[in-house]
Amino acid sequence: MGRIEDYALLGDLQTAALVSSEGSVDWLCLPRFDSPACFAALLDDPGAGRWKLAPGGAGPCTSRHYVEDSLVLETEWETDEGTVRVIDFMPPREHAPDIVRIVEGVSGSVQMYGELTLRFDYGKVRPWVHHDDDQILAVAGPDAVRLRTPAPTRGHEWSTVSEFTVHAGDRVPFVLTWSPSYQRRPDPVDAEQALQDTLGYWHGWAERGHDLTGPYRDAIKRSLLTLKALTYQPTGGIVAAATTSLPEQVGGSRNWDYRYCWLRDATYTLQALIAGGYLDEANAWREWLLRAVAGDPADLQIMYSLDGTRRLSESELDWLRGYEDSAPVRVGNAAAGQLQLDVWGETLDGLALARESGLAATEDAWDLQVLLMEHLESVWNDKDNGLWEVRGPRRHFTHSKVMAWVAADRMAKAVRRHHSLHGPADRWEALRDTIHADVLAHGFDADRNTFVQSYGETALDASLLIIPRVGFLCGDDPRMLGTIDAINRELTQDGLVLRYQNSASDDGLPGDEGVFLACSFWMVDALHLAGRQEDAIQLFDRLLALRNDVGLLSEEWDPTQQRQLGNTPQAFSHFALVTSGLQLHAGRGHGSHEPIWHPGIPGEVPR
Ligand SMILES: OC[C@H]1O[C@H](O[C@H]2O[C@H](CO)[C@@H](O)[C@H](O)[C@H]2O)[C@H](O)[C@@H](O)[C@@H]1O
C-alpha cells in the first residue's frame, strides 16, 4: 500500500473513503464511519478489498486536487497516449451511500483498467457477484453493493474487471451504491447530476463560513472542510479520524481505532468550526452531547460511538496483516473505560465558547453543565489516565488539573456574566483558586523552571503548552517561557514536538511513536502568546509543508523517514491547524473560550 500521505479523502457526512494517488479506493466502511470496511486494502493488500480505476499499467498520478472548496477530487494521469482525469466523490447522503467515479478523457486515447474487489467485514467475506439487469450486484449477509456503468465489465478471480479506452471528450461514469441486502434496490443515481449537486453542497457550505483572506486562507478552509467531513450528520457526532490502526510507528503495535466520538477531540473540533463561522455544527454537537451523556454524571465516558452507544469493546482482527505489517489491527477502543479528567474542562470550555459565540443557552444544556461541574468537584483530585490515554498506572496529570481549573473558571464566569444562568459561583471560584494553587505547588518544577507531566515527576509533556491559551497563566509568564524552552530543548525531534518522552513516562505500551502534530501547533500558539511572532509563523509554515498534496494531515509525523504516521485525516491535527492559523491570521492572542472572530480583525497576517 501507499504511504499514508498518498491518500485523499472522500466523504458523504456519514462515512468516508480513502483514495490513493494510484487511483485505488483502499478504505471504505459502509454505511457508517464505524461500520465494517468493504475495502480494507489499506490494512493488508488488495485482496482485502479495493476499487482501482486508472490507466492500465500506470503508477501514481501526475497531479490531483480538490475542485475549489469541495470534497470532489480530480486525479490526472498524463500518459504517452494522452491525458485522463478521474473525478471521485461521494454525494452528501440522502438515501443510500454512493461513490461516484467519472473517467474523463482530456486528450488522446487512454486505455483504462478498473478492478473492483469487494470484501465485506474488513476483508473477510467474499460476496456473491452477478449481473442484475443493468447492474452488477454483490451480496453477502446484510450487505449489498451495486455497480452501474456503461463500461464493459467481466468477472476475474473474485473481482470485477473493466478494460476500456477513453477518448478526449468522453465521460464514463461508475456509480457504486450500498444498501441493506434485504431492502429493495435504491433508485439509480445520475452521475453528472450528482456531481453538480455535490459541488453545490460543498461550495455552499464553504461560503457559509467566515470570509477568510490572507496567506493561510486555503489551508484553513481545507482543514475546516476536512473537519466537516468527519462529522456524522444524522446525530451531530464527530469522529476523531476516518480510519483504524494506521500505526504510530511503522511495524509497531500502537494501532488504535479512531472512528468514535471523543468528548475532547469533538469539543476541539467544535472550537475550530465555531472559529470558522459554523454555529449549526456546534448546535448539532451540543444536542449529540446532551443525548450521549444523559444519565448519572458519574457514568460519563470520555468517548462514545456516533449515536451515543457506550460499549466500544476493543478487539483485534487477526486476519489482517496491518498497514505495512503493523499489527494488530484493532476495532473498538478500551480507552472508553478510562478516567480522563481533562474532558470535563474541554467540554465545559467548548460549551462556554458556543454560548459566547451566539449559540443560545438552553435550560437542558445549562442543567447538564451544572451536573458535570458538580461531579467534577468530587473527583478532580483523583489520579487519572490523562489526555494521552496512557495505559500505564494512573497519575495526577498536571494537564488534567489545569483543565479542571478551566471547568470551574468557565462555570463561575457563566453565572457572573449571565443573569439567567444559576449556580454556586462563589464555591466554583473557590475551587478554581484551590486548583490553581495545587497546580503551581505540585505541577511546576521550580528548579528547572518548567511545568511537568504529573505531580512529583520530572518528565515533560507538550499538553502543558495550552496553559496560556486556556487562560491559566499569561503567555509571557516566566513559568510559561521556561516551559516553552524546556519543551523545545528536551521534547522535540527535528524542531517538532513529541507528546512526551516514552522513556521518561510509562504509558504502558511497547514501542515508540512519531511527533504528535497537534502538539507542534500548540507550540505555535504558545510562541505567539509569548510574543514570539516570527518563531510562531516559522513553525506554522513548516507544519503546513507536512500536509499532503491535497492538504491532509494524519496524527503524527516521522522526522527520520519524513512520512506521516497514525490515523488519517485526524481531527486533532486539523483543528489545531485551524485555531493556530486563525490566531496568526488575527495577529493577536485569544483564549480558548473567546470567539476568535469578530468584526475588526484584520484580513492579513502581519509580517
Ligand atoms: O497513545 C495511546 C492511546 O492512543 C490513542 O489515543 C490518542 O487518540 C485519541 C483520539 O484522537 C486522543 O483523544 C488521545 O489524546 C490520544 O492519545 C488511543 O485512542 C488510545 O486507546 C491509546 O491508549
Describe the structure.
Residues 3-159 form the Trehalase-like N-terminal domain. It comes from Flexivirga oryzae. Its EC number is 3.2.1.28. InterPro entries: 6-hairpin_glycosidase_sf, 6hp_glycosidase-like_sf, GH15-like, Trehalase-like_N. With 607 residues, the chain is of the alpha+beta class. The chain has two domains: 4-203, Beta-galactosidase, Chain A, domain 5; 209-586, Glycosyltransferase (Alpha/alpha barrel). The protein is 31% helix and 21% strand. It has 13 helices and 28 strands. It has a 15-stranded antiparallel sheet that branches. β2 (16-19) and β3 (24-29) form a beta hairpin. It is globular and about 75 Å long. The two termini are 41 Å apart. 53% of the residues are buried. Residues 598-607 have low confidence and may be disordered. Bound molecules: the ligand OC[C@H]1O[C@H](O[C@H]2O[C@H](CO)[C@@H](O)[C@H](O)[C@H]2O)[C@H](O)[C@@H](O)[C@@H]1O. The ligand OC[C@H]1O[C@H](O[C@H]2O[C@H](CO)[C@@H](O)[C@H](O)[C@H]2O)[C@H](O)[C@@H](O)[C@@H]1O is lined by residues 240, 256, 258, 262, 264-265, 333, 335, 387-389, 391, 572.
Summarize the structure.
By secondary structure, the chain is of the alpha+beta class.
Please give the radius of gyration in angstroms: 24 Å
Biggest β-sheet strands, sense, barrel = 15 strands, antiparallel
Distance between the termini: 41 Å
Briefly note the structural class of the backbone.
Answer: alpha+beta
- Give the averaged pLDDT, no decimals: 95
Number of helices: 13
What ligands can be seen in this structure?
ligand LLGJG24Q
Keywords: Carbohydrate metabolism, Glycosidase, Hydrolase
Cofactor: phosphate
Catalytic activity: alpha,alpha-trehalose + H2O = alpha-D-glucose + beta-D-glucose
Family: Belongs to the glycosyl hydrolase 15 family.
